[in-house]
Specification:
Strand content: 15-25%
Number of helices: 2
Number of strands: 8
Oligomer: single chain
Largest sheet: 4 strands, antiparallel
Mean pLDDT: 86
Structural class: alpha+beta
Low-confidence stretches: none
Radius of gyration: 23 Å
Strand order of the largest sheet: 3-2-1-5
C-alpha cells in the first residue's frame, strides 16, 4: 500500500548492546557466585596444586635436572625453582612458576595451612621426576580444608576430602 513504511527487519545496534550488557552482568554475577562457594574454590585450588606438582615433575624429566617446590612461609602459595633458587618456567604455560593465592582473584582467601615435607616446607624432585620424600599439604578456605598427599615412593597424588572425585591419572 502506498504511504506505508516497509516493515523493519532485524535489531538496532542499541537493542543489541542492551542485550549484551544484560547478559554480561548476569554472567559476571553467576561466575562470582559460583566461585564464592567454599567447596568449589577449595577443590579447584587443590586440583591446581596437584597439576602444578605434576608439571614440576615433568619439568625435571624434560630438563633432566632437579626441581624444588617451596611453600611460602606465610601460607600465601608456592613457587617452583631450579636447584640454584631461580624461579622455573612452567613447562605447560612457559610462564614463571609462581602461585600466589592473594594475587589470584579466584583463589583469594585460600591459604596453605600445613606442609609436611622436610624441615623447610620444600619438596625436592629429582631429575627423573620422582619426589625425594612424601608430601602432605593442607589448604584452607573459609573454615573448610582439603589435603593433598604425594606418595614419595611412587609419586601418586591423592586429594583427601575431594568433593569432585578427582583422581590422579598420571601415577
Amino acid at each position: 500500500m502506498p504511504g506505508r513504511s516497509p516493515s523493519r527487519a532485524g535489531f538496532t545496534l542499541v537493542e543489541l548492546l542492551a542485550v549484551l550488557l544484560v547478559m554480561s552482568l548476569a554472567a559476571a554475577f553467576t561466575v562470582r557466585h559460583y566461585f564464592s562457594r567454599t567447596e568449589v574454590t577449595l577443590e579447584n585450588a587443590a586440583i591446581l596444586l596437584a597439576r602444578d606438582l605434576r608439571a614440576a615433575q615433568h619439568r625435571s624429566l624434560l630438563l633432566n635436572e632437579p626441581t624444588l617446590v617451596l611453600f611460602l612461609p606465610d601460607g600465601a602459595g608456592y613457587v617452583v625453582t631450579d636447584k640454584q633458587g631461580n624461579v622455573a618456567l612452567n613447562p605447560m604455560t612457559d610462564e614463571p612458576f609462581v602461585r600466589s593465592y592473594p594475587d589470584d582473584g579466584v583463589f583469594d582467601g585460600v591459604e596453605v595451612l600445613a606442609v609436611a615435607s622436610g624441615a623447610d616446607r620444600t619438596l625436592e624432585i629429582d631429575r627423573r621426576g620422582m619426589p625425594l620424600e612424601g608430601l602432605e599439604v593442607t589448604l584452607g578456605f573459609e573454615g573448610d580444608e582439603r589435603t593433598l598427599q604425594l606418595d614419595g615412593k611412587n609419586g601418586a597424588i591423592t586429594l583427601v576430602g575431594s568433593s569432585s572425585g578427582w583422581i590422579d591419572l598420571d601415577s
